[in-house]
Amino acid sequence: MPITAIRGFNDILPAEALVWRRIEETAWRIFLTYGFSEIKLPVVEKTALFSRSIGEATDIVEKEMYTFSDRSNESLTLRPEGTASVVRAYIEHKLYVAPVTRLYYTGPMFRYERPQKGRYRQFYQMGAEVLGEESPMADAETISMLMSFFKAVGVIGARLNINSLGCSSCRPAYKDALRVFLKDRVSALCDNCQRRLEANPLRALDCKGVGCIEATADAPAIIESLCASCSTHFDGLKSSLNDAGVEYAVNPRMVRGLDYYTKTTFEITADTGLGSQNAVAAGGRYDGLVEELEGPKTPCFGFAVGVERLSLLLGKDVAVKTPINVFIALGHEPRSKGSELIRGLRDKGMVVIEEFSEGALKNRMKRADRLGASRVIILGEDELKEGVVTIKDMATAAQEKVRFEELADRLGAS
RNA sequence: GUGGGCGUAGCUCAACUGGUUAGAGCGCUGGACUGUGACUCCGGAGGCUGGGGGUUCGAGCCCCCUCGUCCACCCCA
């Protein structure tokens, strides 16, 4: 048996890579206009970075991380998400000396899960983080930027859901209230929700189990129990989104799986194309994380986009086609003259592929066609004597002879 | 980790309740056409039916194990 790629780790073949390139270029172009700069981060970090930031009791840390010991017995982990690394770098390089820092990153993330549609063990995220800004206007602006990006890249039917998870001063009280509420109907909850009733009762709000949906139908909503500061922030977010013309729905049942979120959380879902993993982007505010990782108290907001999921929403027809010229030389002399001509065309940015095989022209034409040639340039002994090449347009089958000096202009024009 | 579907040629798929030598389209290759692809016609190559074990006179088909893959649960981008 030949060696294959490992489960959940995929090759992105050229046709799809073209879609990805378009996604990334569009994102960078738009994010740049909002003042973001790129940061390149390592793919491996010390394990403690993730257990401390994401939360010891989360599914990601408990059972989904690729953790291993290196040769000096240090516990390392393939990053399951990007925010922790951004914050680590922010603190490590003292980037907080700037009033506000806006960073974007992209790259592979790793989670040990069973692969399914839109979910892989190595998957790619593009993320953006605003560090050092507490205004809800930053939340709204960043979400708005993301929606603009989706629109520009061609996503249709994306829906924005927002919620607030409160902060360290109002969430504990809400959790208690919710626990009390749920204890009366604990038997209706699924095993999972019963188990995490103490640690994380919020999860029950998000659960798809029928019993859990019924049991939590008239549960208290967290947005009703926000403290003054969180409540003001949430109102500010909504009015800023309204001002920006961004449509949204408040979903008080939306709960995130990472512990560091405070105040604003949001999720962008698409109804078709994603299977049951319908979130294509998500994020929120994490005002306590920098401090938790021993940096100065710094309010932050950020999001991540799943590139595979976004790609599923776009289809393959977004790729830009540049004409491909295939060069066929017939014989030794034409070949060396051909090298010179090809160099000249490439210097002008044209795509030229030389067809090197030595079979019959018929077969070489066939190969050229399969290479995706939009035009074939033929140089044989006859042409060489005349100082011309034959250009054949593969779509129309029209053929013409063009002098060497005019070749580049002729190809560039059509 | 749990549940279900599917593994047959490079690709997409056939093969009646188990029955001769496992087929087709596309692709590949050679020719018709020795300097012209894509169209047409004719020929050819290509399969330990994912792997292993079992039942049977006989297994692509039934049973067990295993691997892979897809979808779903859990959870998440």
- If helices are DSSP runs of H or I spanning 4 or more residues, what is the number of helices? 16
Beta-strand content: 15-25%
What is the number of domains?
Answer: 2
Assign a percent range to the helix content: 25-40%
Task: Indicate the structural class.
Answer: alpha+beta
The largest sheet, given as strand count, sense and whether it forms a barrel, is: 8 strands, mixed
- Arrangement of strands in the largest sheet: 1-5-6-11-10-9-7-8
The total beta strand count reads: 16
Just give the CATH class of the largest domain.
Alpha Beta
Given the C-alpha coordinates, what overall shape results? elongated
**Which regions contain 5 or more consecutive residues with pLDDT less than 50?**
none
Radius of gyration: 28 Å
Name the CATH superfamily classification of the largest domain. Answer: Bira Bifunctional Protein, Domain 2
CATH topology grouping of the largest domain: BirA Bifunctional Protein, domain 2
- Roughly how many Å apart are the termini? 49 Å
- Give the rounded overall mean pLDDT: 90
CATH-defined architecture of the largest domain: 2-Layer Sandwich
Walk me through this protein's architecture:
It contains 16 helices and 16 strands. It is an alpha+beta fold. It folds into two domains: 14-170 and 226-314, 2-Layer Sandwich (BirA Bifunctional Protein, domain 2); 324-413, Anticodon-binding domain (Rossmann fold). The strands form three sheets. It has an eight-stranded mixed sheet, sandwiched between helices. The chain binds one RNA strand of 77 nucleotides through helix 3, strand 6, strand 10, strand 11 and helix 12.
